[in-house]
């Protein structure tokens, strides 16, 4: 069985610390801090660029030689308001001191120094509707390719209503074959509302060499090294996830599973 489902290591402090080495791949890193008011997290960026996402709560954030002061206004992720986010370049460092209890995501990928640190959200991030019927979900494109805010990272939030599917029809982006497809590793940080809920995610390849279906709880991370990766939210539980993607090219090009592409064609006819 592939080690794709990562549980949080605790309830406070750095509860996720996923690196390319621990994931067994080459690009995406994902960390998550659960901070109490007054707690501080700080890290050097090293050879990676970083996008900090205030999933919930408020914090005083500094990075790359700049002090951005107190950021954050979304106290519950399911408010669906755009998140406060900060870009920090490679070769620098960042710090965050919680002014309320907060959840801070640390999204990383290899990059060269050169960009300036900057606040990249909530300004410039709007809620986008995608899909139809039970495939409807709502997107915050924090740092997708249409926003020139990073060298490698692609970051987005997705809200999936109870009873709906997401990352669906099944699609993959595991070949370095632009413009038909780009190779992008991906992580999913899941939350459920109410918090005791559960969801499902399947990660599978067309040849069957990888086929894992996981029950995800609030706070879990799922790794997608290759293959298709749809999610399902059961009746009664809304699903949120924060995606981090990176690869050799900062473009998102995917292909739907050939058996299920008819759904996309019908819905977009």
What is the quaternary state of this protein?
Answer: single chain
Strand order of the largest sheet: 1-20-17-22-14-13-12
CATH class: Mainly Beta
The coarse silhouette is globular
Please name the CATH architecture. Answer: Sandwich
Compressed to H and E, one letter per element, the order equals EEHEEEEEEEEEEEEEEEEEEEEEH
Q: CATH homologous superfamily name? A: Jelly Rolls
Tally the beta strands: 23
The proportion of residues forming helix, as a percent range, comes to: under 10%
What is the CATH fold-level name? Jelly Rolls
Low-confidence segments, given as residue ranges, are: none
Number of domains: 1
Give the structural class.
mainly beta
The proportion of residues in beta strands is over 45%
Distance N to C terminus: 39 Å
Mean pLDDT over the full residue set: 97
Count of DSSP-assigned helices: 2
Radius of gyration: 18 Å
Sketch the major β-sheet.
7 strands, antiparallel
Write the layout of secondary structure elements.
Layout: E1 5-6, E2 13-18, H1 20-23, E3 29-35, E4 40-44, E5 48-56, E6 59-63, E7 66-71, E8 85-88, E9 93-98, E10 102-110, E11 118-121, E12 128-130, E13 137-143, E14 154-160, E15 165-166, E16 171-172, E17 185-193, E18 198-204, E19 211-217, E20 221-224, E21 231-232, E22 238-246, E23 255-256, H2 261-267
Antiparallel strand pairs: 1-20, 2-3, 3-10, 4-9, 5-8, 5-10, 6-7, 6-9, 8-11, 12-13, 13-14, 14-22, 15-21, 16-23, 17-20, 17-22, 18-19, 18-21
